Amino acid sequence: MAMRKFYSYSGILLLAVLLNGNNLFSQTLVYSQTFYAGSSSEPQCDAWVAFCNSINLSNTYASITISGSGSATATGAVAQAIATALKNNTTYAGASGGYNWAVDNWGGCNAGGTAGPELTATGALCSCNSGYTVRPCIHNANWGSANGGATCGGGTQTMTVTLTVAGPPCSWSGSSGSSYPTIVCGSFTSVPAGSGTYTYFTAVAGATYTVSTCGSSFDTDLTIYDANPAWTARAWNQDNGPDCAGTNASVQWTATYSGDHIAVVNRVGCQQHDWTGTSAILKFRKDDPCACTPNQPATTWTGAVNSNWNNGNNWTNCVPGPNTNTTIPVVGSGVYPVLNGGAHQVNTITVNPGASCTVNAPATLTATQ
After folding, report:
1. Which pLDDT score is estimated for 305?
2. Are 337 and 309 in contact (CB under 8 A)?
3. What integer pLDDT is reported at residue 18 of this predicted model?
4. What whole-number distance in Å separates Cα of residue 191 and Cα of residue 177?
5. Rounded CA Rg of the chain
6. Which of the two ends of the chain, N or C, has the fewest CB atoms closer than 10 A to its terminal CB?
7. Phi and psi for 171 in degrees, rounded to 5?
8. Local mean pLDDT, 10-residue blocks, the chain (369 residues)
9. Rounded to an integer, what distance in angstroms lies between the CA atom of residue 239 and that of residue 227?
């Protein structure tokens, strides 16, 4: 009998299906919001940005679908490229399923307010036409269509975007013998792990981590589970993950649960037993947020990844903290920090002419000097 688990947050629905502990696995990431005729789409934009940020590029995506009273679907390499563009604030164009798909970068079709990407199956970005288009962050009534109709000034409707993950997670046969390694920002902690074994570790919701088997002597699968609820697969990779190319697996994902997680290492094909006595190298690293310490008194915005203030990869040194002198210069990408929630404090902040820093309520940003 199938066990079905549903999770919903910020307009995003995650569905996982596990069959009797076997390696059959299907996971979908779903954005679904109701849009109202003649109205702009502020809450829908916030949920869209959360959806795009939650895309895990360690996964291989089999398909992406825009649906309402009708639907359009892209599959294979085009679906993967769309997911990558939505996550990384880049543009893309490609054909799949009889549709010409395109993604505009965050803010490309934006009448002001929070920036977010446009996804269309019409082939024409920031255009009034007919077809399947999702652009909640345009901040007017021309937010698109999921029924194949007018993409500007459309009628009230629910628009849904569904990303489906390809590939199984792997199960386990026993403990690796290593538990709760110390995980630090910016550098890996390594432990040994045999095929088919699990290793406990602790993660904090909202933080981004990389777990890797890169450097291992055999072809690996890697699956991450959290304990909310029970053991639920959150990320899986077999080859060419974010930490290294080739047959060693690695994943990078943002935790949605604070507490116990396990990393499961298998030989390729989810093999649980290994009679060779050879262990894999299992490495853990916290990537974000990596806040500045008193020994890091200054940091400068780069916007290398997106507009997320809390992403350490958007700064030269670290995410600003209460002791940090913070500079936001003009950057070539035109991507500047946006704060949508939380209380943030810096020592000083300098926003150069031509640059910007947007603080949307209920977020706050305070400089002590």
Report:
1. 81
2. yes
3. 31
4. 9
5. 21
6. N
7. -95, -175
8. 27 34 50 91 88 84 88 88 93 93 84 82 94 93 93 93 78 87 84 92 85 93 88 83 88 86 89 76 85 81 87 83 93 91 90 94 89
9. 25
Question: SS3 letters for 247-314?
Answer: CCCEEEEECCCCEEEEEEEEECCCECCCCCCCCEEEEEEEEECCECCCCCCEEEECCCCCCECCCHHH
Q: How far is CA 113 from the centre of its chain?
A: 21
Q: Which of 101, 27, 98, 11 is nearest to 62 (CA)?
A: 27
CA 245 to chain centre: 20
SS3 315: strand
Ordered by where they begin, the domains of the chain are 2-166 (no CATH), 174-288 (2.60.120.380), 298-367 (no CATH)
Both tokens of 41, joined, read: 């789409």
Which helix (H) or strand (E) segment holds residue 191: the answer is strand 189-193
Contact 71, 32 (CB under 8 A): no
Dihedral angle sign, alpha carbons of residues 180, 54, 159, 168: negative
- Nearest residue to 204 (alpha-carbon basis) of 252, 254, 243: 254
250 beta partners: 212
The letter for the amino acid at 229 is: P
Burial level of 146, CB count in 10 A (0-12/13-18/19+)? buried
Within 8 A by CB and 6+ apart from 361, the residues are none
Bond into 362 cis (ω within 30): yes
**Predicted pLDDT at 224:** 92
Question: What local confidence, expressed as pLDDT, does residue 245 receive?
Answer: 86
Query: 37-43: long-range contacts at Cβ-Cβ below 8 A with a sequence spacing of 24 or more?
Result: 37/141, 37/153, 37/154, 37/155, 37/156, 38/141, 38/153, 39/141, 40/138, 40/139, 40/140, 40/141, 40/143, 41/136, 41/137, 41/138, 41/139, 41/143, 42/113, 42/114, 42/139, 43/11
Give CA 184 to chain center in angstroms: 21
User: 98, exposed or middle or buried, with CB in 10 Å at 0-12, 13-18, 19+?
Assistant: exposed
